[in-house]
Amino acid sequence: MGQTKKKYYDQLLQKVVEYGVQDMVEFIDFTNDLVTLREDSDVEVVCSRKEAFGRVAIEAMDCGNPLIVTVAGGLMYV
């Protein structure tokens, strides 16, 4: 993990502790097994600043997962 990524991870971890949701949030390593990841997930978040369409959001909805998106591009219409 590069220094920049470590700093960002530490910031995210600090927020998790600040909000008291340590038992609800799990940070995982990269995986190619998206099916299992989605099956094990309770919610999906798409936090893009710019998004033309939002295929990831459509895939999440197809799996039946609740979805949280930013108001960016086409995501607000999904």
Question: How would you describe the overall organization of this protein?
Answer:
This protein is mainly alpha-helical and 78 residues long. The protein has two domains: 1-28; 31-78, no CATH class. The chain has three helices and two strands. The protein has helices at residues 3-18, 34-40, 55-62, and strands at residues 44-46, 67-69. A two-stranded parallel ribbon has the order 1-2. Helix 3 (55-62) links the parallel strand 1 and strand 2.
| Mean pLDDT across all amino acids | 83
Structure class: mainly alpha
| N-to-C SSE string, H for helix and E for strand | HHEHE
Kindly report how far apart the N and C termini lie: 34 Å
How many domains, in number, for the residues? 2
Q: In percent, how helical is the residue content?
A: 25-40%
Which regions are unreliable across 5 or more consecutive residues at pLDDT < 50? Answer: none
Number of helices: 3
How many β-strands, per DSSP? Answer: 2
Q: Strands of the largest sheet, in order across it?
A: 1-2
Set out the fold topology.
Blueprint: H1 3-18, H2 34-40, E1 44-46, H3 55-62, E2 67-69
In short:
The protein has about 80 residues and is mainly α. About 40% of the residues lie in helices and about 10% in strands.
